[in-house]
Amino acid sequence: VLVMRSSAIDRGACIESFSQYPQEIEYLFPPISFLQLAGEQHLECTPDGPVRLVPVRINANLKTLTVEEICAQKQTTHLAAFDFLVDELTRDLADLAESADAEARAAADP
Predict the structure, then answer these.
(1) Structure-model confidence comparison of residues 100 and 71, the more confident one
(2) For residues 10 and 15, what is the distance between their CA atoms, to the nearest angstrom?
(3) N or C, which end of the chain is more exposed by having fewer CB within 10 Å?
């Protein structure tokens, strides 16, 4: 179980009233929040058995992009890389087609 410490700035949004588990308090944090180990983990005995507790501190990046913006940014990057590879392949194939031994190589292919 993660035992989270948060500050007033790094606090998540409480969704307790929307939870399907009324006995639990749930929080939502922005995407790309950073969890940092904040101490030694330890075991605690509960009526349901032993539980490993891991203390962490959360650092919510308030200037981060939304998930949709991150996906759009990744898509743009991937499409640009793909266009670069297509251009490079086109250039390499044109160089091969213009080479002196292109006709001999084409005739040798079945």
Answers:
(1) 71
(2) 16
(3) C
Supply 52's token pair. 């490993």
- CA–CA gap between residue 45 and residue 52 (Å, rounded): 9
Range of the domain at 29: 2-60
Is 40 exposed, middle or buried, given 0-12, 13-18 or 19+ CB atoms closer than 10 A? exposed
Q: Is the domain of 45 the same as that of 72?
A: no
User: Which are the contacts of 19, defined by CB distance < 8 A and separation ≥ 6?
Assistant: 25, 26
71 and 53 inside one domain: no
Residue 26 binned pLDDT confidence (cut-offs 50, 70, 90): confident
Predicted structure pTM score: 0.49
